[in-house]
């Protein structure tokens, strides 16, 4: 929704450390910079979701040292390291992949004890478990079962409605 990539980066400035911005800005053009931005964002989101703390967490507390800089589509990488409050977090692993030219996936695997109750548990993936699978809409709904029987009259009524909201007259009460 921003007017330009630099304007968008200015708005998002507080969400990344200076080191992360240096890496993002080191990319050769704005679109590659945006791509690296989204990679960092996916990593931060994966950590927040893994520990269950939400977006209220100060994102500058976590810093990612991405490696390698370029990800091959379909290959899973585990080289990226995270610092929390400036200290390297050895107990966390981040699995990353590119689904295609526009989509990054990051999964955080580690211990949540510092953030949530001790009885919560995070299970890391075993090496023989399948990696990421790209699903189509049809794959997702294939096993779906309708909640109620189909009612063609309901659909006909829905289709007969105007495309947009009808403006109310200012004189009506």
TrEMBL record:
Domain of life: Eukaryota
Molecular function terms, GO-annotated: holo-[acyl-carrier-protein] synthase activity; magnesium ion binding
Biological process, per Gene Ontology: lysine biosynthetic process via aminoadipic acid
First-level EC class: transferase
Residues covered by the 4'-phosphopantetheinyl transferase domain: 7-107
UniProt KW Transferase keyword: yes
Signal peptide: none
Keywords for this protein: Transferase
PANTHER family registered for this protein in UniProt: L-AMINOADIPATE-SEMIALDEHYDE DEHYDROGENASE-PHOSPHOPANTETHEINYL TRANSFERASE, PHOSPHOPANTETHEINE TRANSFERASE
Descriptive protein name: L-aminoadipate-semialdehyde dehydrogenase-phosphopantetheinyl transferase
Organism: Irena cyanogastra
